[in-house]
Every structure is written in C-alpha cells, then in structure tokens.
Amino acid sequence: MTSKIETQFGWIITFPIVWLMTVYLKLKNRSLNTANDYARHQKEFFSITFLRNKSDKFHKVRKKVAEYALNGKNKKALDIATGHGFQAKALMDIGISDVFAIDIVPERIESCKKMDQNKGIKFQVMDAANLSYRDKFFDCSTVSAALHDMPTAVKRKAILEIVRVTQNTIVIFEPRTFKNPFIAFIYGIIGEILDESLNFKEYVKDDLSILFQDHNFDMIKDENVWYGILNIKVFRSKI
C-alpha cells in the first residue's frame, strides 16, 4: 500500500536520479527528434522500472482537469498518454463512468492494469497520433504532459485525432506556451534542461488554440497552474 505522502511527494526524493537519466537519454537519443522515431526515446525513458514509483507531482491538478472534462454531463472519457493512470483515475473518481486510457509505452499500461485503484479503467497500448476509435466515440478527452514530448508534425496529427474522436470537451494540461519570443526562448531552455522531452523548445512557441479552433473547438478556459509553470486549456465543441 502506497502512503499519501509517498504518492504526493515521493517524486522530490527521486528527482535527482530521474534528472540524470533524463540528461543521459537526451544525449544518447538527440538524433531521434523526427516524426518516425521519437517514440523510441519515450519508450526507452518511460520503460525504466525506477520511474514507476506511483508518485504524482501533479496530484493537486488532477481533480481540476477532471472537473473540466466532466463539464457536468460527460460520461465517456479518453485519457491520452496516461502514464501511471493518475489522470484516468481522477476522471473516474469525479463521476465519469466509462474511462479509457492509452499510452505508447507497453510497460506503463501493464503497470496501470496491475494497480488495484485503477480497476474499471480500460487501458490500451496505443499511439495518440493513430487512434483506433471511431469518430466522436468519446464525450471528452484529456491530455496531460504529453504533447510537449512530440515533434511538431506528430503533435499536430495527435491533436487532429483527439478532435476526431471527441464529441464535447477536450482538456489539455501541458507546459505553458508564449507569444513573446524572448520569454519562450528562456522558458524553452529551462525546460530543455529539466524535462525529458526532445521537443520542449519547439512546443512552447506553438499556439495550439488555432488548430483546435480550425476544427470547431473553441477555447473556453486558459488557466496557469502548478506554481504558474504549467497550463490548462479547455476546448469545447462548437457543433
């Protein structure tokens, strides 16, 4: 049984080792920053057993993301790049009765399936840029700290897939983006040093809201969270 303290703050203890792994793998895989093989870096990084320590540094944000996804009525949800399944569980806890969760890393999905608290969630290994679900299959979808890992072409394809399978509400929880190029540069450099993503600097310069709006989803909420470092964007279908 994992204690509440370990779940919420265990990541602080492991951060130095995780950061060293981050630096090593980013140097090793720096040439993999393409649409075809970026997933190799993700699988190599997140398949490390040490990272599956059930600690969630974003625990205070999970309920807020889930509440936005619920929107008082949504009943079927997709959690993309679910990781340890924390956000998927928050969706179920908030009252969404039918929760699906996907991740590109098989070891993470297997770990989620073994956790008792995640019973009832439908976990599957799947690429966010190639979803197997039919159009408008879900009432709502959530993405937590995954889009910034993707090369721009993959990220945009994933967003189109999310829009395709979602009927009502999409909630994005990611690093902040900036229109000011100087701020984006500084924030991008810091993220490039601390985060496992090979594409952090490109992500923080990209305005995703335009792509959603072009596909009939209006941004209704834009909120900075987690000490102002990260951001929640909520999109709602215009149809």
3D architecture notes:
There is one protein chain. This protein has helices at 4-28, 38-46, 59-70, 86-93, 106-114, 152-165, 181-194, 200-203, 208-214; strands at residues 76-80, 98-103, 122-125, 138-144, 166-175, 217-225, 230-237. The protein is of the alpha/beta class and 239 residues long. It has a 7-stranded mixed sheet with strand order 3-2-1-4-5-7-6, with helices on both faces. Strand 1 (76-80), helix 4 and strand 2 form a beta-alpha-beta unit. Helix 3 packs across helix 4. The termini are far apart. The model has no long low-confidence stretch (mean pLDDT 89).
Globular, elongated, flat, extended or rod-shaped: what is the shape?
globular
Q: Give the amount of beta strand, in percent.
A: 15-25%
Overall mean confidence score, pLDDT: 89
Could you spell the SSE succession in H and E letters?
HHHEHEHEEHEHHHEE
Structural class: alpha/beta
Strand order of the largest sheet: 3-2-1-4-5-7-6
Portion in helices: 40-55%
Largest sheet geometry: 7 strands, mixed
Secondary structure tally: strands: 7
Distance between the termini: 45 Å
As residue ranges, the low-confidence spans are: none
Cα gyration radius (Å): 17 Å
Number of helices: 9
Set out the fold topology.
Blueprint: H1 4-28, H2 38-46, H3 59-70, E1 76-80, H4 86-93, E2 98-103, H5 106-114, E3 122-125, E4 138-144, H6 152-165, E5 166-175, H7 181-194, H8 200-203, H9 208-214, E6 217-225, E7 230-237
Parallel strand pairs: 1-2, 1-4, 2-3, 4-5
Antiparallel strand pairs: 5-7, 6-7
Helix pairs in contact: 3-4
